[in-house]
Design brief:
Length: 158
């Protein structure tokens, strides 16, 4: 067990908000509590200006965290905000960990995750905690079997 608290920003699409609760529960069962700095339906962002959202809402939250966790589902690949959040976290020297959503059987990952990610892990509490803590830098398929990161062009956070 890993009795600790971490400041984490979970990058996701709003359609996957329910998965964030499942992720927190899984981590808590394995001894880690996260302070989630994400924007979700419980903590909505009603701003309209993309520049304002990035500079005044997302950037400070990402800077306050030690790790950016990317909740991987089919919809995250195409999300402009998810890719920006990952690239911004990388520019701030944050650890970036992809976590396959519970029950996910595989899909394309966001391009920025493939480029900047430190680890991608399946839905296993100990694996996620090890990746967040920097004890694991491996890339896994959703079932936890080893995978190779894709090599792709850089995605700019600018």
């Amino acid at each position: 067990m890993s009795d600790q608290t971490k400041n984490v920003f979970v990058s996701h699409i709003h359609e996957d908000d329910a998965g964030l609760s499942q992720l927190r529960t899984l981590l808590e069962k394995n001894g880690m509590t996260i302070r989630d700095y994400s924007i979700n339906s419980d903590n909505p962002n009603n701003a309209k200006s993309e520049d304002y959202i990035k500079s005044e809402i997302l950037a400070p939250r990402i800077r306050a965290c030690g790790t950016l966790v990317v909740y991987i589902t089919p919809g995250t690949k195409e999300s402009h905000y998810v890719n920006w959040e990952i690239a911004y976290a990388e520019s701030q020297g944050k650890r970036i960990v992809g976590v396959w959503a519970h029950g996910e059987s595989g899909c394309d990952q966001p391009e920025a995750l493939s480029d900047f990610g430190d680890a991608v892990v399946g839905w296993h509490g100990d694996s996620i905690i090890d990746a967040i803590n920097g004890k694991s830098n491996g890339w896994e398929n959703p079932d936890g079997s080893p995978s190779q990161p894709r090599q792709i062009a850089r995605y700019s956070c600018g």
